[in-house]
Design goal:
Shape: elongated
CATH architecture of the largest domain: 3-Layer(aba) Sandwich
CATH class of the largest domain: Alpha Beta
Strand order of the largest sheet: 10-9-11-8-12
CATH superfamily of the largest domain: Periplasmic binding protein-like II
Order of helices and strands: HHEEEHEHEHEEEEHEHEHEEEHH
Helix content: 40-55%
Number of domains: 3
Structural class: alpha/beta
Strand content: 15-25%
Bound molecules: arginine
Number of helices: 10
CATH topology of the largest domain: D-Maltodextrin-Binding Protein, domain 2
């Protein structure tokens, strides 16, 4: 082969290689992105980000004493708010409470509108498809059915709810229970907020009974004398956990650490006792 031809072969080879390389660039970029995404998933930096912004944004539904409510001075108060304060303290940041309807909380964690949720939220399999949960910080006796005290004798078990109007909070496990246990045998009415809205609806006679968690039911009957607990039905023994974004392992570690320490030191019980007493005295 003449030397001239050899030069052309080499040139063609170089051009070919360069073109091939250029063509592979988008593949490399997308691969790099996938690797970076995977690395971020394995080493999440939620804690770092919260520290950098200096504030922990906690989503709640402040209509559910003694876990969360708006006190006489217009401040958010209750058990979950106290636990949230400890978590913010542990992270060395300020606490911002964002009040929204309970049914909107899961989405708010998913889209980053809030960092975590404390709302007496029960960890369920269905919710775990969308968010992660901390270890539980509260155990429950299940759902309580509340009725007007004057009608207490008419309500002995689930079948006594047939043909009645039953109030529940939208998006809660109490709503799930009422719908599946009663089906078309009763009219289940879902409210966005429980206290005071749903309680007032009950006092007006718009509904015949309400299905709530055991703790809120027990504090309500102390505060609203014409209400009584008829019976307990369904619900979950595991009461509440903190909801976090899926894969926020670093944040979950910090949250679990605070909860563990509160449980082990007996401070969790103190928070419950103090906050229940506070609500009973001054309330919302
Ligand atoms: N524990 C129930 C649930 O997770 C009810 C929680 C309602 N919480 C509230 N802040 N309104 O479905």
């Amino acid at each position: 082969m003449a030397a001239k031809n050899l030069v052309w072969v080499v040139v063609a080879l170089i051009v070919g290689l360069a073109a091939g390389y250029a063509a592979s660039l988008p593949i490399q970029t997308s691969l790099n992105k996938q690797v970076a995404d995977l690395q971020a998933k394995l080493n999440p930096n939620y804690v770092e980000k919260i520290k950098a912004k200096g504030v922990l944004v906690v989503g709640t539904s402040a209509d559910w004493p003694p876990f969360e409510y708006v006190d006489k001075n217009g401040n958010y108060a209750g058990i979950d708010i106290e636990i949230a304060k400890r978590i913010a303290q542990e992270l060395g940041v300020k606490l911002e409470v964002r009040d929204m309807k309970f049914a909107a909380l899961i989405e708010a964690v998913k889209n980053g509108q809030v960092d975590i949720v404390l709302a007496d939220m029960t960890p369920t399999a269905e919710r775990s498809k969308q968010v992660d949960f901390s270890i539980p910080y509260y155990f429950s006796k299940g759902n309580a059915v509340l009725v007007p005290k004057s009608k207490l004798n008419d309500f002995k078990d689930v079948t006594d709810l047939y043909g009645k109007k039953i109030g529940v909070q939208l998006g809660t496990i109490q709503e799930d229970w009422a719908k599946s246990a009663l089906g078309s045998n009763a009219q289940v009415i879902s409210y966005d907020r429980v206290y005071p809205e749903m309680v007032m609806a009950m006092q007006r006679g718009d509904i015949d009974a309400m299905v709530l968690g055991d703790t809120i039911a027990n504090v309500l009957i102390g505060k609203v004398p014409d209400l009584a607990i008829a019976f307990y039905a369904g619900g979950s023994r595991i009461g509440a956990a903190v909801a976090l974004p899926q894969g926020a392992y670093d944040l979950k570690y910090e949250v679990n650490k605070v909860i563990e320490q509160l449980l082990e030191s007996g401070d969790m019980q103190k928070i419950f006792d103090t906050e229940i007493a506070k609500w009973m005295e001054s309330g919302g």
